[in-house]
Amino acid sequence: xxxxxxxxxxxxxxxxxxxxxxxxxxxxxxxxxxxxxxxxxxxxxxxxxxxxxxxxxxxxxxxxxxxxxxxxxxxxxxxxxxxxxxxxxxxxxxxxxxxxxxxxxxxxxxxxxxxxxxxxxxxxxxxxxxxxxxxxxxxxxxxxxxxxxxxxxxxxxxxxxxxxxxxxxxxxxxxxxxxxxxxxxxxxxxxxxxxxxxxxxxxxxxxxxxxxxxxxxxxxxxxxxxxxxxxxxxxxx
Length: 237
Prior knowledge:
alpha/beta; CATH 2.40.240.20; Alpha/beta knot; seven-stranded parallel β-sheet
Protein backbone atom coordinates (compact mmCIF):
# COMPACT_ATOMS: atom_id res chain seq x y z
CA UNK A 1 0.00 0.00 0.00
CA UNK A 2 1.29 3.47 -0.89
CA UNK A 3 2.23 5.51 2.19
CA UNK A 4 1.81 9.28 2.29
CA UNK A 5 3.24 11.56 4.99
CA UNK A 6 1.16 14.56 6.03
CA UNK A 7 2.78 16.10 9.09
CA UNK A 8 0.59 17.93 11.59
CA UNK A 9 -2.75 16.41 10.55
CA UNK A 10 -5.07 14.61 12.99
CA UNK A 11 -8.17 13.62 10.99
CA UNK A 12 -11.16 11.60 12.19
CA UNK A 13 -12.93 8.84 10.28
CA UNK A 14 -14.82 10.38 7.37
CA UNK A 15 -12.64 13.49 7.21
CA UNK A 16 -10.94 14.52 4.01
CA UNK A 17 -7.24 15.36 3.92
CA UNK A 18 -5.79 17.31 1.00
CA UNK A 19 -2.24 16.28 0.06
CA UNK A 20 -0.40 19.00 -1.85
CA UNK A 21 3.03 20.06 -3.03
CA UNK A 22 5.96 17.68 -3.40
CA UNK A 23 4.19 14.92 -1.47
CA UNK A 24 1.33 14.90 -3.98
CA UNK A 25 3.72 15.21 -6.92
CA UNK A 26 5.71 12.19 -5.73
CA UNK A 27 2.58 10.08 -5.30
CA UNK A 28 1.44 11.02 -8.80
CA UNK A 29 4.74 10.91 -10.66
CA UNK A 30 6.56 8.02 -8.98
CA UNK A 31 3.84 5.87 -7.43
CA UNK A 32 1.16 6.67 -10.05
CA UNK A 33 -1.67 6.85 -7.54
CA UNK A 34 -5.13 6.44 -9.05
CA UNK A 35 -8.62 7.54 -8.07
CA UNK A 36 -10.17 5.04 -5.63
CA UNK A 37 -6.84 3.58 -4.52
CA UNK A 38 -6.35 2.87 -0.83
CA UNK A 39 -3.50 4.79 0.80
CA UNK A 40 -1.77 4.64 4.18
CA UNK A 41 -1.69 8.17 5.59
CA UNK A 42 0.91 8.92 8.29
CA UNK A 43 1.52 12.10 10.26
CA UNK A 44 4.89 11.06 11.71
CA UNK A 45 3.58 11.41 15.27
CA UNK A 46 1.93 8.05 15.78
CA UNK A 47 -1.19 8.36 13.62
CA UNK A 48 -1.80 5.70 10.95
CA UNK A 49 -4.85 6.07 8.73
CA UNK A 50 -6.23 3.94 5.94
CA UNK A 51 -7.69 6.35 3.41
CA UNK A 52 -9.10 6.24 -0.10
CA UNK A 53 -8.08 8.60 -2.88
CA UNK A 54 -11.21 10.45 -3.96
CA UNK A 55 -9.86 13.15 -6.26
CA UNK A 56 -6.51 12.75 -7.98
CA UNK A 57 -5.07 15.75 -9.80
CA UNK A 58 -2.41 18.33 -8.99
CA UNK A 59 -3.52 17.76 -5.39
CA UNK A 60 -4.87 14.52 -3.90
CA UNK A 61 -7.96 14.33 -1.69
CA UNK A 62 -7.91 11.41 0.74
CA UNK A 63 -10.99 10.32 2.70
CA UNK A 64 -10.20 8.63 6.02
CA UNK A 65 -11.77 5.17 6.41
CA UNK A 66 -10.13 4.07 9.67
CA UNK A 67 -7.27 5.17 11.88
CA UNK A 68 -5.25 4.25 14.94
CA UNK A 69 -2.85 6.03 17.27
CA UNK A 70 0.33 3.98 17.71
CA UNK A 71 2.37 4.32 20.88
CA UNK A 72 6.08 5.18 20.53
CA UNK A 73 8.50 2.26 20.31
CA UNK A 74 9.65 0.78 23.61
CA UNK A 75 12.40 0.91 24.55
CA UNK A 76 13.22 4.17 22.82
CA UNK A 77 16.72 3.84 21.38
CA UNK A 78 18.43 7.18 20.78
CA UNK A 79 21.61 6.79 18.74
CA UNK A 80 24.59 9.13 18.99
CA UNK A 81 27.35 8.76 16.41
CA UNK A 82 29.74 10.83 14.32
CA UNK A 83 28.29 11.92 10.98
CA UNK A 84 29.51 9.61 8.19
CA UNK A 85 31.05 11.18 5.12
CA UNK A 86 29.06 12.09 2.01
CA UNK A 87 25.95 10.08 1.11
CA UNK A 88 26.68 7.59 3.91
CA UNK A 89 25.06 10.06 6.32
CA UNK A 90 21.77 9.52 4.51
CA UNK A 91 22.35 5.75 4.61
CA UNK A 92 22.75 6.00 8.40
CA UNK A 93 19.40 7.74 8.85
CA UNK A 94 17.65 5.37 6.44
CA UNK A 95 19.03 2.25 8.16
CA UNK A 96 18.23 3.51 11.66
CA UNK A 97 14.68 4.25 10.52
CA UNK A 98 14.32 0.74 9.14
CA UNK A 99 15.50 -1.06 12.29
CA UNK A 100 13.35 1.08 14.60
CA UNK A 101 15.60 3.67 16.27
CA UNK A 102 13.72 6.53 17.91
CA UNK A 103 16.25 9.25 17.21
CA UNK A 104 19.77 10.20 16.16
CA UNK A 105 22.17 12.99 17.02
CA UNK A 106 25.75 13.78 15.91
CA UNK A 107 28.37 12.77 18.47
CA UNK A 108 31.58 14.73 18.97
CA UNK A 109 34.24 12.25 20.05
CA UNK A 110 38.01 12.64 20.24
CA UNK A 111 38.54 11.01 16.84
CA UNK A 112 35.48 12.46 15.09
CA UNK A 113 36.22 14.02 11.72
CA UNK A 114 33.18 16.30 11.36
CA UNK A 115 29.70 17.01 12.60
CA UNK A 116 26.45 17.68 10.79
CA UNK A 117 25.84 21.34 9.91
CA UNK A 118 22.36 22.90 9.73
CA UNK A 119 21.95 22.46 5.93
CA UNK A 120 23.15 18.88 6.26
CA UNK A 121 20.68 18.21 9.06
CA UNK A 122 17.88 19.62 6.89
CA UNK A 123 18.75 17.08 4.20
CA UNK A 124 18.85 14.28 6.75
CA UNK A 125 15.40 15.34 8.00
CA UNK A 126 14.10 14.74 4.48
CA UNK A 127 15.76 11.32 4.43
CA UNK A 128 14.04 10.48 7.74
CA UNK A 129 10.67 11.53 6.30
CA UNK A 130 11.16 9.41 3.17
CA UNK A 131 12.24 6.45 5.29
CA UNK A 132 9.14 6.85 7.47
CA UNK A 133 6.96 6.29 4.39
CA UNK A 134 9.10 3.46 3.03
CA UNK A 135 9.07 1.66 6.40
CA UNK A 136 5.45 2.63 7.10
CA UNK A 137 6.51 3.49 10.63
CA UNK A 138 4.11 5.57 12.70
CA UNK A 139 6.76 7.82 14.24
CA UNK A 140 9.39 9.63 12.19
CA UNK A 141 12.94 9.23 13.45
CA UNK A 142 13.90 12.47 15.20
CA UNK A 143 17.17 14.36 14.75
CA UNK A 144 18.70 16.29 17.64
CA UNK A 145 21.57 18.69 18.26
CA UNK A 146 25.12 17.33 18.57
CA UNK A 147 26.67 16.40 21.91
CA UNK A 148 30.20 15.92 23.19
CA UNK A 149 31.03 12.39 24.32
CA UNK A 150 31.47 13.54 27.92
CA UNK A 151 27.87 14.85 27.96
CA UNK A 152 26.31 12.02 25.97
CA UNK A 153 27.76 9.29 28.20
CA UNK A 154 26.14 10.67 31.34
CA UNK A 155 23.15 8.57 32.35
CA UNK A 156 19.80 10.25 32.86
CA UNK A 157 17.09 9.16 35.28
CA UNK A 158 15.21 7.03 32.72
CA UNK A 159 17.89 6.06 30.20
CA UNK A 160 20.60 3.40 30.17
CA UNK A 161 23.77 4.39 28.31
CA UNK A 162 25.35 1.78 26.02
CA UNK A 163 28.75 2.36 24.41
CA UNK A 164 29.66 0.22 21.40
CA UNK A 165 33.28 -0.95 21.54
CA UNK A 166 35.09 -4.00 20.11
CA UNK A 167 36.53 -4.78 23.53
CA UNK A 168 33.20 -4.75 25.30
CA UNK A 169 30.99 -7.49 26.74
CA UNK A 170 27.87 -9.08 25.28
CA UNK A 171 24.75 -6.94 25.49
CA UNK A 172 22.53 -7.64 28.51
CA UNK A 173 18.89 -6.58 28.64
CA UNK A 174 18.32 -3.63 30.95
CA UNK A 175 14.53 -3.23 31.03
CA UNK A 176 15.07 0.52 30.64
CA UNK A 177 12.37 2.54 28.88
CA UNK A 178 15.03 4.52 27.02
CA UNK A 179 18.51 3.59 25.84
CA UNK A 180 21.22 5.97 24.70
CA UNK A 181 23.49 4.16 22.24
CA UNK A 182 26.90 5.70 21.55
CA UNK A 183 28.73 4.51 18.42
CA UNK A 184 32.30 5.64 17.79
CA UNK A 185 34.10 7.14 14.79
CA UNK A 186 36.50 5.35 12.47
CA UNK A 187 39.27 4.20 14.75
CA UNK A 188 36.87 3.77 17.63
CA UNK A 189 36.62 5.62 20.91
CA UNK A 190 39.78 6.81 22.64
CA UNK A 191 40.98 4.89 25.69
CA UNK A 192 40.06 7.82 27.94
CA UNK A 193 36.50 7.78 26.58
CA UNK A 194 36.07 4.08 27.32
CA UNK A 195 37.41 4.66 30.84
CA UNK A 196 34.90 7.47 31.31
CA UNK A 197 32.12 5.18 30.07
CA UNK A 198 33.00 2.57 32.71
CA UNK A 199 33.26 5.25 35.41
CA UNK A 200 29.77 6.61 34.63
CA UNK A 201 28.12 3.18 34.72
CA UNK A 202 27.55 2.74 31.00
CA UNK A 203 27.41 -0.73 29.45
CA UNK A 204 30.45 -1.10 27.16
CA UNK A 205 29.31 -3.65 24.59
CA UNK A 206 30.69 -5.50 21.57
CA UNK A 207 28.06 -6.09 18.87
CA UNK A 208 30.02 -8.49 16.71
CA UNK A 209 33.48 -9.73 15.67
CA UNK A 210 33.97 -7.30 12.77
CA UNK A 211 34.90 -3.64 12.58
CA UNK A 212 31.96 -1.99 10.81
CA UNK A 213 31.43 1.39 9.24
CA UNK A 214 29.52 3.83 11.43
CA UNK A 215 26.20 3.44 9.62
CA UNK A 216 26.35 -0.37 9.71
CA UNK A 217 27.52 -0.48 13.33
CA UNK A 218 24.77 1.88 14.50
CA UNK A 219 22.00 -0.02 12.72
CA UNK A 220 23.26 -3.46 13.80
CA UNK A 221 23.68 -2.41 17.43
CA UNK A 222 20.25 -0.79 17.52
CA UNK A 223 18.59 -3.88 16.05
CA UNK A 224 20.34 -6.18 18.56
CA UNK A 225 19.32 -3.97 21.50
CA UNK A 226 15.69 -3.83 20.43
CA UNK A 227 15.55 -7.59 19.86
CA UNK A 228 17.08 -8.52 23.22
CA UNK A 229 15.02 -5.98 25.16
CA UNK A 230 11.76 -7.13 23.54
CA UNK A 231 12.57 -10.80 24.13
CA UNK A 232 13.05 -9.93 27.81
CA UNK A 233 9.71 -8.12 27.88
CA UNK A 234 7.99 -11.12 26.26
CA UNK A 235 9.55 -13.51 28.78
CA UNK A 236 8.60 -11.27 31.72
CA UNK A 237 5.03 -11.16 30.47
